[in-house]
Amino acid sequence: MTLVQMHSRSTSTNTVPRTVADAMDPAGPQVWDTMTVEVALSVMAAARTGHLVVCDEDGQYTGLVTQARLTAVRDGFGYTDRLRLRDISDNDGPFASPLTTVAEAEHVMRHRRLGALPVVDEHGNALGVVALSR
Fold first, then answer.
1. pLDDT band at 92 (very low <50, low <70, confident <90, very high)
2. PROSITE patterns, from UniProt (predicted)?
3. What is the number of structural domains in the chain?
4. Is residue 118 part of a domain?
């Protein structure tokens, strides 16, 4: 399910806003931040996905990398086959709590021009990803 799908709302006054927990897709492939860029691209191709959730050695979410980002890094000046995801990861990138409303997540994604937004619980575990449909 994607964020831009519309659902009819009840006219009742006790309607609860829909959260990203209701709209997210499973996190998909989760990889360690010690993985090389080349291996990550191979995993992404095999999984037929446009993004990977990156975790540290404790399994905690550290970032999200996209195929476009990995390809740009690989094709960039100074690339070596030893470059790891932790070296290129945007650790301070946005993520959503499962309690974030769909409207809030959609606003962040449109404002920051993101195609996907990870959903992370209070313990740092990646639960899923919400994405805007094209």
1. low
2. CBS
3. 1
4. yes
